[in-house]
């Protein structure tokens, strides 16, 4: 058997006006040909796909991996290059049996709302209908009609924070091969659910969403179904064909339909529970001031999370700290390339008036003029401690730690690994030694931060990934989607089915 393996991974925030160009991908990973084999054994989706294929002695044809963090829409030229190189890999052999694709699944380009569907359709047009096409995706993917039409298998993460990248790739590999090897081929059914909810409002670590995931896993364990994926579409994707969904894979199509609807109804009925209790910035500062134990207080600035495609350049917390005169020892990271470059220019130990914040989204995030002391300078490279992505190398570009009284600000060209404590530790900012830490992430950080603090507060902050979804300027997403429409349970009968 011969299989092509490729990857295109980027999560789009429609409210971030900054286009993701090729250079944005270069900051993370562009690997071509046999360079992909460097990911064998790594905690990523491609690593899991490789393991599944190697177990069956499949002849692996490596294509291209283009991987980056969340951001604005992707430059169409980047996607065109990806498709061209993927087709080149396919054409290396007279025939192939399967194509395995690692995708995020919630990606827009400057020309196409449904980037993943566009990619899958392009690959299908080249390989024909007999070749198996299997895709791994993020839990926050938007599984579109086009993706379902042209895929045999689609698998999503089952954890949030996401710590099962490898396992999801492995599931995708095994199920894709099952389409080739098994007499009774797996059938895939999707139920679309017209709802979006804030990504900071649920987790698979505990609570109702965790219980729902556990129900799906029990169905697999009891062999009622082969696989399931519950997709909470990331809620900052303003597209026409947008919805959350459930995919179930089973040997019997009737079983897949039955349990897809079962899980979809349960998810839909939980919609009101997916609303976080938000604190104001001032309230969290007061909590930190009154804190008497050794645990740091975490202020969750999810609205400015670059993991969610926001710009990461908000200084709202710094402004509130300065206005209140609080003496709480605070750590925060901010995307601000000009400030980082200025720090490198004037050097460690010197002071200057810096303009910090608002460099990426000035219409939403303001700029502060403040005197800063340059505490340290860095090249921006660090290794994640995990558990998610342990050992993965990130580079936030030329960076610096600026001190403003009792506030330490890491300024950088871009933020990767938001939820990993090494974003601070690697640059001399030990999180456990601060009284207040601002984390620009939705939920990913909880896997690591929960190990040393339970004082975590979701906070009402400005940004392109606002928790208040009704405050965002949606133009293309249907107004019949919750929370823009209350929706009654009887409308579940009108949910859209898709089948592979």
UniProtKB/TrEMBL annotation:
All copies of domain Microcystin LR degradation protein MlrC N-terminal, residue ranges: 3-288
Domain Microcystin LR degradation protein MlrC C-terminal, residue spans: 299-476
Name of the protein described by the UniProt record: Microcystin degradation protein MlrC
Organism encoding this protein: Pseudogracilibacillus auburnensis
């Amino acid at each position: 058997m011969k299989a092509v393996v490729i990857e295109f991974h980027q999560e789009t925030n429609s409210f971030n006006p900054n286009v993701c160009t090729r250079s944005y991908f270069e900051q993370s990973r562009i690997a071509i040909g046999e360079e992909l084999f460097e990911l064998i054994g790594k905690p990523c989706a491609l690593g899991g796909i490789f393991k599944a294929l190697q177990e069956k002695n499949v002849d692996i044809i490596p294509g291209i991996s283009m991987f980056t963090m969340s951001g604005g829409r992707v430059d169409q030229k980047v996607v065109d290059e990806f498709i061209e190189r993927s087709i080149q890999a396919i054409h290396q052999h007279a025939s192939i049996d399967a194509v395995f694709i690692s995708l995020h699944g919630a990606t827009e380009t400057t020309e196409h709302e449904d980037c993943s569907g566009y990619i899958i359709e392009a690959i299908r047009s080249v390989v024909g209908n007999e070749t198996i096409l299997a895709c791994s995706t993020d839990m926050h993917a938007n599984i579109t009609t086009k993706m379902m039409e042209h895929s045999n298998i689609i698998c999503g993460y089952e954890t949030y924070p996401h710590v099962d990248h490898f396992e999801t790739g492995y599931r995708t590999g095994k199920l894709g091969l099952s389409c080739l090897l098994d007499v009774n081929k797996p059938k895939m059914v999707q139920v679309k659910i017209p709802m979006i909810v804030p990504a900071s409002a649920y987790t698979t670590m505990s609570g109702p969403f965790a219980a729902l995931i556990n129900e799906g896993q029990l169905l697999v364990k009891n062999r009622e179904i082969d696989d399931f994926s519950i997709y909470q579409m990331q809620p900052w994707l303003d597209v026409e064909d947008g919805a959350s969904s459930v995919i179930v894979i089973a040997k019997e199509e009737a079983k897949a339909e039955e349990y897809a609807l079962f899980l979809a109804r349960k998810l839909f009925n939980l919609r009101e529970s997916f609303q976080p209790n938000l604190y104001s910035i001032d309230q969290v500062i007061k909590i930190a001031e009154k804190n008497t134990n050794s645990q740091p207080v975490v202020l969750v600035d999810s609205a400015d999370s670059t993991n969610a495609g926001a710009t990461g350049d908000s200084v709202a917390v710094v402004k509130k700290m300065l206005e209140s005169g609080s003496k709480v020892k605070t750590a925060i990271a901010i995307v601000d390339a000009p400030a980082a470059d200025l720090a490198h220019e004037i050097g460690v130990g010197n002071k200057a008036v810096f303009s910090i914040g608002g460099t990426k989204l000035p219409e939403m995030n303001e700029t502060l003029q403040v005197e800063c002391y340059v505490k340290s300078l860095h090249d921006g490279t660090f290794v994640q401690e995990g558990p998610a992505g342990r050992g993965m190398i990130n580079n936030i570009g030329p960076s610096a730690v600026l001190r403003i009284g009792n506030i330490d600000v890491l300024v950088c060209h871009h933020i990767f690994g938001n939820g990993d404590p090494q974003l601070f530790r690697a640059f001399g900012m030990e999180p456990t030694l601060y009284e207040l830490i601002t984390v620009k992430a939705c939920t990913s950080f909880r896997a690591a931060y929960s190990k040393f603090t339970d004082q975590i507060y979701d906070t009402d902050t400005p940004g392109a990934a606002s928790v208040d979804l009704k405050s965002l300027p949606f133009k293309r997403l249907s107004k019949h989607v919750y929370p823009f429409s209350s929706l009654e349970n009887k409308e579940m009968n009108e949910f859209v089915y898709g089948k592979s």
